[in-house]
Request: fold
Amino acid sequence: MGSYINKNLLNGETVIFETKYHWIIFLKMSSFLTLFIRPILKMKFDEFVITNKRVVVKTGIIKRETLELLNNKIEAINVNQGIMGRLFNYGTIIICGTGGTKSAFPRISNPIEFRKAFQNTLS
Reply:
């Protein structure tokens, strides 16, 4: 479990599911140009977590961006997977909050399990 989520759990909150970026991020052109430093840092520091109370996504090292939505304020979690994504189990998750806010996170490992874990928190 990531250090950010450990430090920011609410009272009575437990982690249900956690995922990271898929290894496919190492095959992007920007990975080669940064000598694989950028994807290594993304794998180490970015967190995608579902708890029994909320969904927490933390990205960035120096410039930190977080998305923290209570489970009852999320309308849907959509998953987009191409052929390669289905073969290698990665995809884009799109978190749709109430009020029409949408946040997309590409190349996430186990996106179907991420959505399923969220749906299980609602029942």
